[in-house]
Amino acid sequence: MSNHEHLQQHVDDICRRARPAARALAILDDDRRRAGLRAAAQAVAQAEARILAANAEDLAAAQDQGLSAAMCDRLRLDPERLAGIVGDIGRVAGQPDPVGRVLEERTIAQDLQLRKISVPIGVIAIIFESRPNVTVDTAALCLRSGNACILRGGKEAVHSNRALAAAFAEGLASAGIPADAVQLVGEQDRALLPLLLARDQDIDLVVPRGGEGLIRAVVEMSRIPVVKHDKGVCSLYVHAAADQDMALRLIVNAKCQRPGVCNAIENLLVDEAILAQFLPRLATVMAQEGVRLRADRQCQPLLPGSEAASESDWSTEYLDLTLAVAAVRDVAAAIDFTNTYGSGHSDGIISADEVAAAAYLRGVDSAAVYRNASTRFTDGGMFGLGAEVGISTNRLHARGPMGAADLCTYKYVVEGQGQARS
Asked: Percent of the chain beyond pLDDT 70?
């Protein structure tokens, strides 16, 4: 058997099992789905030693391959992070049932009773890189919303993903949930991806999570609808009326807390009116944090040690301790810059001026916009969703952190008493 035939057989087997599992999940009641999630959480917690050992194997390989510190941080699991993953499963289980909600109800022609009701999408494929928590977060959210899922993680987290998926599956089995509700793709060969993404009869939605290259490849290859978890070129704008101490504190949080995540800022915009006052303070704080600065012509002389920024810097997702700094003349210029170079993920203004802040929040076209807060809050857990499948930068179907409710579509239920259309 050739490698292509082997991969095709693997995809055939996964897809053959996914649709029946989705149909079975769609009719499971709320209590059964909750019980399955709680059992999965318990199983993941009990498998801590096995999961952390697998993760240590992935981390050692990543360091041998020279992955950046930020990328290794995305990959790393420890007891605290694993406890957070377990807690996320529990929070998803505790949420209101997203399935069967009456979204709309009215009487239509000839006294027919119409209801618009939320239902599962069906089979969802999640293609992701680096972060092993995605394995469990997405499985939990898909199960909560009555969907079967096919998970395809990156090779850098292969051992972690297998250990997490195996523990999750053990928990589901103990609760009597169909084993095929959550399937982890076993093959890492890149040639498998186009085979999987051609299965538009078997898979209803694809959610890619990862770098720009992965997103672009999935969008170009897929015959299945895609909700993009696009790159996070996020920015903060320090307005002339900003509390500068607050601004420095929020910049450190948004850039330095976890630079390798998509809601960390990559651009900083500073109002021309406060450049001389603010930028020297910024330079000192960023140097203390080990952040490399790339600055435009106006800002560079006021930022000792900074490099000259190029046009491409404004749209680059560094995922590291690098920050691009630009001067803008006013709120309108900040809005234009953000909409031009940003990725529509998360952006914010720091200002005490109500009019300026309102203009910014109205004008910036991103999934999440902030005033006087760090962009680091764009996260399913922080938004009260328990976890997230991804942070959508699409404008259709779902936008921002995608929780269980965003993994539902709807159908119309129409009831009558023998009416025939007149």
From this structure: 100
